[in-house]
Amino acid sequence: MRWHAPQQASGLCLCSSNSGNMTTKKDLEAIENQISTIQVSSHEETVDPVLAHGGFKTMEQRRNWGWLLSGFISLNILLLGIAIVSGSVFNKVQITSSHLLIFLIFLVILTTIWMVYYKIHTSRVCNAVLYKDSHAGPIWLRGGLVLFGICSVIMDIFKIVYYVGRKDCESPVKIAFPVVQALFVIVQTYVLWVHAKDCVQIQKIITGCGLMLTLSTNLTVWMMAVTEESLHQTVAPVNPSSNISSNGGHRSNVTSQGRSGNSECKCIHDMCDVFEKAYFYLYPFNIEYSLFASAMSYVMWKNIGRQMDEHHSHNLHFSLWDVLIGPVAGLIILVAGLATFVMYEVDVAKEDPKKKEEALIMHYTMNIVALLLMSIATLVGCIIFRMDKRDPVSAKSPTRSLDVGLIVGSSLGQYLIYYFSIVALLASGVQGHVNRLDLTNSILTVIQLCLQNAFLIKGLHREPFKETETASVFTNVMAVRERDLERRSSSIVPAHTLPMPLKLLQGQLPWKRRILKEICTFLLFCNVILWIISAFGARPQFDNTVGSDIFEFQTWAAVVNIGMPFGIFYRMHSVASLFEVCLIS
Amino acid sequence: MRWHAPQQASGLCLCSSNSGNMTTKKDLEAIENQISTIQVSSHEETVDPVLAHGGFKTMEQRRNWGWLLSGFISLNILLLGIAIVSGSVFNKVQITSSHLLIFLIFLVILTTIWMVYYKIHTSRVCNAVLYKDSHAGPIWLRGGLVLFGICSVIMDIFKIVYYVGRKDCESPVKIAFPVVQALFVIVQTYVLWVHAKDCVQIQKIITGCGLMLTLSTNLTVWMMAVTEESLHQTVAPVNPSSNISSNGGHRSNVTSQGRSGNSECKCIHDMCDVFEKAYFYLYPFNIEYSLFASAMSYVMWKNIGRQMDEHHSHNLHFSLWDVLIGPVAGLIILVAGLATFVMYEVDVAKEDPKKKEEALIMHYTMNIVALLLMSIATLVGCIIFRMDKRDPVSAKSPTRSLDVGLIVGSSLGQYLIYYFSIVALLASGVQGHVNRLDLTNSILTVIQLCLQNAFLIKGLHREPFKETETASVFTNVMAVRERDLERRSSSIVPAHTLPMPLKLLQGQLPWKRRILKEICTFLLFCNVILWIISAFGARPQFDNTVGSDIFEFQTWAAVVNIGMPFGIFYRMHSVASLFEVCLIS
User: Which of A167, B1, B536, B544 has the fewest CB neighbours in a 10 Å radius?
Assistant: First the structure.
């Protein structure tokens, strides 16, 4: 049983036509591995972690010069990108948005060329990809990528139409960028759809650098999109001469001014305003697209040179009939949230202080109810996890580590905003009904974030439940231990033949799974509505002026504009993770 | 041989007096472990990483609810700290520095109480600490902690004297804080000196939360110190009414104004100004102290529940007679750097534009020469690492991961500043001699950072060279493989009995080690001077106005003030890491 992986390696390599040398070497390695598999009884794992981590040698060794080089390439591109994006925001004359767009066009074209090269090269060389990581690029991620990719292409088309209409007064680069970006999105979506699970074995250095280039390009595009979107949502009331105000921003409390300062520029067709509004509504999808593509290229980069089995997959299924209360309650919250969101947007747009206060009260009340219910549900979920003695997963996967890292990392944005709110509200003395609601809302958000993070981390680190399991119970300690150890080497045998840990067979009750699934679906819908509210432009942080009164407006705007995109991504990513937790519960 | 760890565990536990239940459980586990060690021939490691990482199960399992709880405690304290620190900087009335100090006093007292409790509890319970991590808390780190701790206590004494002198017009909290902080520093230095290597086995949840509390307290103190220091170094020329300007700042281009706005406040003794200057010069040491303490408490937190052997240590020694050119060249750079730094500070203080330009030219020229030599030396070092086939280390240690993380993470601050400089200089058209030198300096810094990071990462991931090795060469492949696997389980046998990998015995030449040691010592001295220049207040980023012209002053000041403390820490930490690389070369 233990010979499967090396056998597969040598078997597959024989078909290689243009790398005979490599084949011989690989064969030799495979034979050596087999010999050592027979000969060596390795050390015991559970006693000494240092010993246990001996297994990491392969990972450490993979982290060679190519790894460093690709890391530095990515780091440098990203930091240069940050500097240029900041420059284009704060400087009026020397660093225009055209400079930024030229930099981005260069990056995007380079990445597209690399992806085409990668596609061609891996198709031609037979042993380029010997293994697939079954955890990488799950269907929801790839599906989301395609969905957001389509929205991004539509956004690019709208942008092209808009800038063609203004071609007399705008730089031609502004038309060129969406054209190049649309092409890039199409090529990248295709390549990631097909190759997301690849564990590349050849040209590791070039592939590593290429993937890091892809990552950096996507993150730079993301940064630009986030900046544009934030500037569009926020209109600074203190600095009307600043060129960071938006044209067509829906909060018209200052003189609207074009990004290039040429508000007298006429559109050659009548649809400019419509298309501009439309493409700004598609920005959140483009932002998500970039993050999805970044996450997938990062996982591919982590999987370079990794050797694992491709047949290791869990046949998970999801039936809507398993759950009832969760989705229904979630849908109620979703519909209520949508209704209040629309009313909020309408009321706030009226610029009437009284209407605005009413809108804020409604918004906070809605949020408080949702957060309270979510917190209770998550707490129940955590208690069930605590009671349930199912084993945590043993294998470390880059996808899961990335998931957890992204959830905790992106939640920092939300934490930051709400801690700043709490401090501002406490410092202002919490005067008035609105501020009391705001404080309750902020504190509840922080609690809900902590609980949901704990729930997701614990949920993602559990072995999937397998229903086809034969319920044989072992009483002999030795037998259990041997089964347990066999289970650890599970990834080279088909999943359905695996024995389950003893505890699961004894303690698992259907009502726990049912409740967990209900909780997951409920939280899923709640996160969707919280995502919609933030992504489509509700900014109570600016509509309630406490934050900008206590901190200076610049600081407050920076906190909100940096924290908000992460918050939006957090809700989005939570939805995906909750779906996964729901499946494996 | 493989039984050592479990035997030790059971042996030590028998002395426990107040936890009989635990002893029985531990014994049972130890026996179980032994049985499984005999019975099980575990899977082969080099074939499948997923299998290999099965060893991580113990680590994943340790990451239980206590781990989550302590993480969330730390996260929440830190974010609240960020919000309050920001509030105290940007708000004049509602959030004063007294509020921040009260928050800090609360944190510091809580942490001190926990540390005293920890010390007493672990001393009384016999099996509280069964294992020690030999990599944690190396002597240079603990030595540095004591050194910086002493400086911090002196700083606190100076602060007390200064604020006692102004006690009629300053809040008593400002006297209370340094008193509490001095006590905290003494207790913490003692506890970390004694317990830095602990792998705590009892009360894991409480210990985890306590260590995370310690980490958060140190980081919050660090944040406050960095903010105070940055505000002191930077005087905003655009906003004279702002209370963020310093009193006694040495760049007096705006009206100096007290932090509390009471510049008419009289000191009751004559030494206020002297003490204020003195304690500001001690800030860099306090900042380093907080970071050292944070790093050590983080490593202790990572080591909670870890089981490893305490006798695993390398007898490394360092002789000054091994190296000659490196230290001499380094000392020359150090002295030249010190001389130009003093001249620079004197010239810049004169406020004469011509003198300032001369000072900048001298500063940049000095930096360019140093960076060029450092880059060449580092490149040679990297090439030697590439030629040298010595195995990378196999065992994963939290200390090394942290070291690498801190180096790469703190270098981001430097990268950020210099990429912003490059963009600003290019956007301004690189006019004049000063700007050309500035651009060269910025580009060279980025290159040097990349090279030095690569050198340090590679250097820290190498097995220490052991000179007492017997040079027996194995030709039988099977024998080598068995030896190699034995080596992996090295940490349970004394280090000096370990066989060396085959490659090392064949390819190692003394001249390589000699050159590496020369390079390390040279880089060490260069990093010391770069640390001194930044830590003691040279800010060419503000003296050359290109950056603040291109970006707005606020943005530029934010970039420099956020990036600089990380840059200072980077140079400091590089010195320590270079010393370690020098030892293991």
Answer: B1
